[in-house]
Amino acid sequence: MKFPQPQTLKQISDLINAEFVGEPDFKILGINEIHVVEHGDIVFVDHPKYYDKALESKASVVLINKEVDCPEGKALLVSEDPFSDFNKITAHFSPFETSHQSLSNSAEIGENTIIQPNVFIGNNVKIGDNCLIHSNVSIYDGVEIGNNVQIHAGTVLGADAFYYKNRPTYHDKLLSGGSIRISDNVEIGALCSIDKGVSGITSIGEGTKIDNQVQVGHDTIIGKKCLIASQTGIAGCVVIEDEVTIWGQVGIASGLTIGKRVVILAQSGISKDLKPDTTYFGTPADDIRKKYRELGYISRIPEIIQKLKNL
């Protein structure tokens, strides 16, 4: 998430009431999570296990809960609770805006685009030409939709990330300040949920088709010309490369990469990265040839047991 205009280290320090290490006028351009952080960004870390990863990342500023040696060319913000202070920054630069009408005055709707009754379109939404948005679709603030996109009834674009910190007495929510970008010629089925990024962008590539009742988690990147069938659940921060086919009721764990032209058969559970040009099946999923051999061996177990009894 980029700030509307650059901030200084001192300005952000004052905003969250934190100590800083670095020049007061050190320039900051935005905030981001570790997997999408860029030069000029703040990244937060609150566990020693991840200190090195944050300090060695592309981030220019590390929001951290302990004063450590500051890498050359970077700055630190030292906070008792980086998680909460990251939320303060998000809330300040990306505050929730109340809507008072179904179609925001700040929304941009392209030529020949049809908006059916009872659609909600939030602030600063951009929708391209020749789109068809069916009834009861909800499009939250800041979503960008390309040309020739069709979205079916009941779908929600831009809900918050499912991202919580486990406190001793409650689950503390990480605020979502990112957005969604949908490219040209995408079709999204009925009753789908596509969450916006925590600080980055959840994106769906050109020509991808998504069936009904599919969940796409925060900051996930779906490539071009993919097919995703009904009741698939994709966790946050997943990368699905081009021309991937995912059949019904597949579950994909967070942070994984699905290679180009992968096919995942129905009801598979994905817990590791998948290599390109391979068909996978099962839970945990594996190369279909290996999995079918395993199933063949399993089917012979009663026969083997009976032979052992007859010895």
TrEMBL record:
UniProt keyword terms in alphabetical order: Acyltransferase, Lipid A biosynthesis, Lipid biosynthesis, Lipid metabolism, Repeat, Transferase
Domain UDP-3-O-[3-hydroxymyristoyl] glucosamine N-acyltransferase non-repeat region: 25-91
An example molecular function term from Gene Ontology annotations: UDP-3-O-[(3R)-3-hydroxyacyl]-glucosamine N-acyltransferase activity
CDD domains reported for this sequence: LbH_LpxD
Pfam family, one: LpxD
Domain of life of the native organism: Bacteria
EC number per UniProt: 2.3.1.191
Enzymatic class: transferase
Claim: DNA damage is one of the keywords in the record: no
Record-given protein name: UDP-3-O-(3-hydroxymyristoyl)glucosamine N-acyltransferase
